[in-house]
TrEMBL record:
Keywords: 4Fe-4S, Chaperone, Cytoplasm, Heme, Iron, Iron-sulfur, Metal-binding, S-adenosyl-L-methionine
Species: Geodermatophilus telluris
GO biological process: porphyrin-containing compound biosynthetic process
Family annotation (InterPro entries): Coproporphyrinogen-III_oxidase, Elp3/MiaA/NifB-like_rSAM, HemN_C, HemW-like, rSAM, rSAM_sf
Gene Ontology molecular functions: 4 iron, 4 sulfur cluster binding; coproporphyrinogen oxidase activity; metal ion binding
SMART domains found in the cross-reference section: Elp3 (SM00729)
PANTHER family: COPROPORPHYRINIGEN III OXIDASE, RADICAL S-ADENOSYL METHIONINE DOMAIN-CONTAINING PROTEIN 1, MITOCHONDRIAL
Protein name: Heme chaperone HemW
A Pfam family the protein falls into: HemN_C
Signal peptide: none
Annotated compartments: Cytoplasm
Primary location group: cytoplasm
Role noted for this protein: Probably acts as a heme chaperone, transferring heme to an unknown acceptor. Binds one molecule of heme per monomer, possibly covalently. Binds 1 [4Fe-4S] cluster. The cluster is coordinated with 3 cysteines and an exchangeable S-adenosyl-L-methionine.
Keyword presence, Plastid: no
Amino acid sequence: MNTALPLLDAPPATLQLPDSAREGLARTPFGLYVHVPFCATRCGYCDFNTYTSDELGPGANRAEYAGTAIAELRRAAEVLGPDLPTVSTVFVGGGTPTLLPAGDLAAVLAAVRDLFPVADDVEVTTEANPESVTPASLATLRAGGFTRLSLGMQSAAEHVLAVLDRRHTPGRAVQAAEEARAAGFAHVNLDLIYGTPGETDADWAASLDAVLAAPVDHVSAYALIVEEGTRLARRIARGELPLPDDDVLADRYVQADTVLRGAGFDWYEVSNWSRGDAARCRHNELYWANANWWGVGPGAHSHVGGVRWWNVKHPAAHAQRLAAGEDPVADSEVLAPADRALETVMLGLRLRDGLPLTALSGSGRLRAADAVARGLLDPVAHEEGRAVLTDRGRLLADAVVRDLTD
């Protein structure tokens, strides 16, 4: 059962980690996530903690955001010290991080290097919308130490982008990927969304063809989820658009897997494919391994040694707390051993390597044997003591996870 962390009372309490959370700090992979909450426009399907200029009040603006992020990085180093963990990954997400000047993002990364020990082979990713980068900005990011770019392509079909309220034009994502490679980025990812109302088989095939025409070594493909409270959900509720069809979503996934694997990509997590192990997103692997990370920015979540906390959501409140010398934490919890074990199963089962059967409860192991019989878990891996999803199991991954953890 989760319990509240008593050291995280109402502000201006100071965030402190119990000794139990520090025990494996030096031995556990550690990453930094920096959330940039700004977007030029709000996409109709998105429920992330993001804001357009019209939605922001005093105390939160792009020009000052790098300084706010650096202030929180300083607090992170103070809390984690004196034996700071080595940063193995940095991921700048959003929102649209590249709405900030490239020099500001480079300054944030420079502050990471000033405040923390950083691995020689550190992976540094920024997300970007295709229209928010230029050859010049990409060159600045690369010179500043960024090694990986993740571009939100979503679709190659203009009418699909319109339903999603995406503003870039078809073809721009591929062009941006080419510019990133020319700037010297070692790894480039394209994000796709499938199952958008109005998307045809030909549209999805064209999107996959466009990805294969781009100089990328990583592809993420996610089924469209209709999130409550979004413009897309309201349009569907009014009958303007149909709900995504589960059978169509399954067909789209199979098609993506077939096309990508045929082109030399291999899946390593249910929704992610890479050209070899070096192209995997190590930051996301850190999440899936239930390792440690510190989240910087409004609404960002952190996890260190079984302690989880999250920041206040609004950028103005976040900035005001840091300016006042206070922690921007909204709330926290200490994960009980049973909760941590459950999360290990939920995350690990989505990975290509699966997880040891010993990570399951007794009833979970019995259900795993049944899942093998139903073609959802690999029988050879099961004989070797691991639970690994089959191709059919990946289509029903969420259901398999629920079955093995109930």
